[in-house]
Design goal:
Layout (H helix, E strand, L loop, with lengths): L1 E9 L10 E10 L2 E10 L8 H7 L3 H4 L5 H12 L3 E4 L2 H14 L11 E4 H8 L7 H7 L12 H15 L11 E2 L4 E2 L17 H17 L5
Parallel strand pairs: 1-4, 4-5
Antiparallel strand pairs: 1-2, 2-3, 6-7
């Protein structure tokens, strides 16, 4: 399986308001092993960067003046991600910007180029409902070192995302679980290898009574954890 972990930085939050990509990074992992193949460019957006966005990523317009435009790197980008499973944290945001850029130069949307798209933010929310599921929060939860992430950067974030995804899916290679971005939601595939002859041992009456008494005791002590 060929996975591409991708992240972007932008001039602002809204592609439909004319904001542009200023950094794009993607790293390749095949069969859960890094290949050292990567795609990384800073991009001249030909427009101002919102101050709030610049505070997040620290990229200035002066720094980008001699960098290529998106049109100059688009074909190489599409070749790099072609037929892969694209993994993105908050996929609708990045896909919206990428497709806006591709549309401006009459290139096909990225969904027509890759095999599938996984949104790890949706995946994390399904696995950890009610929890903080930012990339930083997931790094802390899975004990992944993100100490170098003082500012957002597409290449570092793509690398951290790969580590997070591998941690999130550790032990699931044979479960056929696939959280795919389908434009607005995530689709999970059923595990067709699940055995149908499992033996279920039910609790007897005494065990049920003991369990109920234990729960009542916990309620009285106000130590319930759910």
């Amino acid at each position: 399986m060929r996975y591409i972990f991708l992240d972007t930085e932008t001039t602002g939050l809204y592609a439909n308001q004319g904001h542009r990509i200023i950094e794009i990074a993607a790293i390749e992992i095949v069969n859960r092993r890094p290949t050292n193949n990567s795609f990384h460019f800073y991009i001249n957006p030909d427009r101002e960067i919102d101050p709030a966005a610049q505070e997040v990523h620290g990229i200035t317009l002066d720094f980008l003046q001699d960098k290529p435009r998106f049109t100059e790197i688009a074909s190489d980008f599409l070749r790099f991600v072609k037929d892969s499973t694209l993994v993105i944290h908050n996929a609708p945001f990045d896909i919206g910007f990428i497709n806006m850029e591709l549309g401006l130069i009459e290139k096909p949307p990225v969904e027509e180029v890759v095999a599938s798209i996984i949104d790890t933010l949706k995946m994390a929310k399904d696995m950890r409902p009610g929890q903080r599921n930012s990339l930083d929060a997931l790094c802390r939860f899975y004990n992944i070192d993100n100490s170098q992430r003082s500012l957002h950067g597409a290449l570092l974030d793509a690398q951290l995302l790969a580590e997070v995804y591998l941690a999130m899916t550790r032990g699931q290679e044979d479960l056929m679980i696939d959280f795919q971005y389908s434009g607005s939601d995530v689709i999970g595939e059923k595990n067709t290898k699940r055995p149908t002859n499992l033996f279920v041992l039910k609790a007897d009456d005494d065990e049920l009574k003991s369990h109920e008494a234990y729960l009542n005791k916990m309620k009285g002590e106000k130590k319930l954890i759910w």
